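So, can you check this one?
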Amino acid sequence: MSMKLRVRINRQTSRVELPGEEPTLQELSDLIKQTLLSCNGHSADTEFSLSLNGSELLSESDQTLSACGIVSGDLITVLLPQPPPGAMATSEKNTMADRQEAASGTTSQPQSSSSGGSTSAPPTAPPQTSDLQDFEAAPPVWEPMLCGEAEDGEAPLSLELLYHTAQVACPNDAIMVAAHLLMLETGFTPQGSELKPGEMPAGWRSAGGVYRLQYNHHLCGDSLVSVVAVGMGPLLVINVVLKVTESIDTTRKLQLNPSSYVTHEWPENAAAAFKDLKKLSRILKDQLAYPLIAAAREAMALPVVFGLQALPPELLLRVLRLLDVRSVVRLSAASWQFNAAASDSTLWKHLYLRDFSNPDRSRSRDTDWKQLYKKSYKLRSELRHPVRPYSLPPYPLRDIITPVPRPLFPPLPGIIGGDYDQRPNLPPNLLPHPRYDPIGPLLDPAVRRPRLDFRRPAGGRPSDIRRGFI
């Protein structure tokens, strides 16, 4: 196995290949010193730094490339030390002089004058053709880029050409130009006459603000895709109709706000006109392009061509190994293909050895790893959450038939207007009846004692019996 990378030095991009399964950052630096620095006019002793995104430096040389987040196809930028301004100007003058001398085929001969005469240095041979090629200025290199890879302020070359030739006049035009390029990126070809690269199909834009495009796809047979878009206020409504046969049609609808993806100013280049091009690419592909391909192949009873179902079994198993056991079980219920892949014995062996701290590795080849994982998982769950018997607090036993005796004197005072409120200074034994009963008997019939007259208290004016009912 090997890792293929792209290395950029002074706007020139080269491709390198590192052998081995886990190449390190030091191996990449040594390869750049041996092969690329000399090709770009630098010596092998030139100090440089490596960066993945142009800003963050990769400093740990002993670390592997995969640990730094680098995968095959990534772009590595070589950052060279910047010379001082004076030295740069002198270097440019010397380079221009060398180019003129190389073009004319003559070299300047230094002269030295003295009192005894003059001597001249021996003539030097003109530079060879390979030296002239090193002195030539490198043309600008356009990196192959998709719309989903463009950052803010960037745009693919194909979008720049379409934007220039289409003569974009409004945000809806810009969205449709980008939509056409995204359909081309997913494999759709325009229907009709052959188009030159960088041109929009004929009749794609009408005077009434209606846009019409037609495509077909090599994975969808003779299916025809018709795209009709119209502006409705601030929104652009895109309607797509997939014609598989005379009786099978699939329609998709998408609404976009052009102001979310196109700037207010209208410059001449697409890099400054578009913003958040990644999101626009993801929305159009995920909601229009890919569902149309899947619907067409499903209608023609053809196998899928993208997604997890399109992966070969060995790659699907590698994906399943990265998931947790809950996700694997849920994915196995999605389709028969995922169920068969999730029942693989090697997958459950990997999950068992990964998820349990002290797994039993001394197992025979006939071990059912799925059942072993299930048994170990249940045992671990029981240890983590032991089942405790539910016990109620002791309930006091009492006689629920015999009523509870009512207290003779409740702790609450009597109501307003009762005997207790009118004469609060009387001893409690003189009032055997409840204090909250203002009209009850004043004396227990069993006790033969003279009845007290509370209507005319000694001293003062007589009390009003009606006050107890107010």
Remarks:
- The longest helix spans residues 277-299.
- The chain has 13 helices and eleven strands.
- The CA atoms of residues 229 and 238 lie 4 Å apart.
- Residues 102-140 have pLDDT under 50 and may be disordered.
